[in-house]
Amino acid sequence: MIIKKYIVNDMKEALIRAKYELGKDAVIIHQRKIKEGKWYNPFKTTKLEVTLAIEEDKDNIKDPKEAKDPKETIQNKDIYGKNNMENTNISKEKDIKTNILFKDANEELKEKLLSYCKLKSLDVNSLTSEDIKDFLNIGYKDNCFKEKLSLGKLNVMVGPTGVGKTTTIAKIAAKEYLENNKKVGLITLDTYKIGAVEQMRTYAEILDIDYEVVTEPNEMINKINKLSHCDILLIDTLGTSQRNKEKLQDIWEYLKDIKEDINTYLVLSISTDRETTLSIMDKYKQLEYDALILTKFDEVSSFTNVWNIMEHTDLPVEYFCHGQSVPDDIEIANIDNLIEYSKEVYSYD
Ligand SMILES: Nc1nc2c(ncn2[C@@H]2O[C@H](COP(=O)(O)OP(=O)(O)O)[C@@H](O)[C@H]2O)c(=O)[nH]1
Ligand SMILES: [Mg+2]
């Protein structure tokens, strides 16, 4: 008879290891809880000591060195479980050096990624697009790049000054009008910024589509009605600092009486730093935004902020923009497009 003791986190781990090393007929003959760590360590962890036995039969027993790492057999859905994160024993020093997509990601994402790579026996610095997709879909199951809100009849862009709201509206308008044959109308509330109305008028005239300028909240419904023949209305707003509650309230005054469904998109530039981005996402909740649009991908050298945003919202990211060119520099924000874009600009495979 062969008898073997395993010090494990739980019975599942013991059984998996025994199955690989002793074969499927091994039986549990004893189990007890034990404390691991030096006697003076107040943070000793509780482990399980399991003793298993099997009748001696050489065919049944595998060399433990040949045995597969039991952690690799754990189902994907469990791989980010807390216990398992501890089990994988990832070296904290190991860094993601050359994976351009994740090199400056936060610690939490890196840990998840390293854990994923360990379980799948992949080299973190040479992941394929499929691996990255798989990782994001498993590690961030309901991530903001999966679901789409899709444009409604009324769509309003909000966000700080200069993030690209007006340019993005022009891109979407051109795409919907030229590629999808939609009747598109533009409305601008942006009367504070010098040139804002001209910017919108220029785009409307190039595309030969209708536009209206709203200067007072009580004109809003009337102007929307004037463009009721359009399939899609894109409404531009005045940009404001997230700290300026009054200006945010001003925008709300224009929107609050609209009875029809309205999609509100928060436009964020990913070249903004993490803290500011999170603060914008928080303060703009006042305007009840339903989805996000990310701009200025062409201005950054890493996807750091993309992952930060992903970790801080369940709302869909609808589009991402990567330049000033109207209408070309906009894409639907799904994982395939993100990976494809990153491959093009960072030249990796
Ligand atoms: N590099 C880059 N510039 C952009 C992008 N989107 C907009 N811009 C530029 O950012 C500036 C501000 O854009 P604008 O649409 O007026 O911003 P708004 O104040 O939010 O309406 C303009 O010079 C745009 O051409 C982008 O994705 N990448
Ligand atoms: Mg603008």
Automatic annotation (TrEMBL):
Its main location: membrane. One of its GO terms (molecular function) is signal recognition particle binding. Residues 152-343 form the SRP54-type proteins GTP-binding domain. It is a peripheral membrane protein. GO terms for biological process: bacterial-type flagellum organization; protein transport; SRP-dependent cotranslational protein targeting to membrane. The keyword Lipoprotein does not apply. Gene3D superfamilies: Flagellar FlhF biosynthesis protein, N domain, P-loop containing nucleotide triphosphate hydrolases. InterPro entries: FlhF__GTPase_dom, P-loop_NTPase, SRP54_GTPase_dom. Keywords: Bacterial flagellum biogenesis, Bacterial flagellum protein export, Cell membrane, GTP-binding, Membrane, Nucleotide-binding, Protein transport, Transport. The keyword Zinc does not apply. GO terms for cellular component: plasma membrane. It is found in: Cell membrane. Necessary for flagellar biosynthesis. May be involved in translocation of the flagellum. Belongs to the GTP-binding SRP family. This is Flagellar biosynthesis protein FlhF. It comes from Wansuia hejianensis.
